[in-house]
Amino acid sequence: MSLRQKLTKPLIVEPTDDHTHTVIFLHRFPAETTEEELHDKVLARKLTKNHKTLHEQFPGVRWVFPHPKAHARHWSNLSADDKAELNLDMSGVPYITQIILQESKRVGGLDKIVLGGQGETAEAAHESLSSFPEPSRAQRDDPDAMAGFIKEYFHPSWTDMSQMKLAGFVGMHAQGGNVTRDAKNFGIVSKLSGVNTVNSTIVTNTPHKFIQGGYKVQTVTWDGRRIDDFAGFLVEIGIYRIQERINNNGGGNGTDRLTPKDRSSSQQSSSKADAKEQLSEVQKHALLIMKEKKATEQTRNLILQRIEADKVERKIRQERQRQARLAREAKFRGETQPTANYGISSPTDYKSLSSPEAEEWPANEEDANVSEATTMDKE
């Protein structure tokens, strides 16, 4: 990762047309990469299957690539010099979150921002989604004050917290492996109930795209399936993409679709069938093994995701049981019932739910009852 002792302003690739959206993508190129080299390597310069860069195809997008700090928490704790260099004036708000707020004011609202990263930078980017400023209790109780808070920080025309979201979040990861922290945290927040916070609302309302793999097939004219998946997601969330055309020397109206790599489905099917017939028995066997391995990996990933989801659901259920028990005890003692708050106001809150160091919860309802009975005995 490009860890820097002294931070400089993010690398910016400006739009070629009217500015409509901003993509903030946390890069991880080595610190020795020069500014010129970095400019040619960042996501905006990656090629899709039609041999065009993302920057060329999305003329209204401003691309922002922040640098990580050489620190235990690369994207959070910064020195006074770093803050002055980057014009960060919000105390207690992490670096990337402040960049998001700065760019949202420039483009006209939080819903015009796409946030993302690759590997560990995707996890860091997702943590910044739960680090936005929260209103005070007085502001929450006053609709006018709450509307003013939302307009000041997030969008000039929003008045209600339910409107709050980013245009999208993208996490790119290698194929296979454990469920990543950004995907896990999104799953946790989307299942929690209780008092909504600014941060939990933003995470829940923001469209998410997790891209697994797509790194291997790269050529001089294409940077792999993950780039096409990313471009497709931008189109899905409403960002304008140019349909490239080339001159037609054979007459007609002078324009044709530029599709040197994208053949029609019938041509693709016939060419693949012909190529398969030319394979030797050994090659066919290797191809079969590869397909079986891919299917096994996909099944494994689905199982892991289901396990994580089950853990989350079990923890939520047990927390509700605990709250119910506390309510019964409070009623018995004539005390006020504690308020359950499942909302999340910082990355630490929900990150701890899935941390290996987090408290172990009972595996099932019977264990929960045993644990509950033990607690009552102690009391």
UniProtKB/TrEMBL annotation:
Residues 246-278, 323-379 are annotated as: Disordered. Residues 323-334 have a biased composition (Basic and acidic residues). Residues 336-355 have a biased composition (Polar residues). Residues 357-369 have a biased composition (Acidic residues). It comes from the Eukaryota. InterPro entries: AB_hydrolase_fold. This is Uncharacterized protein.
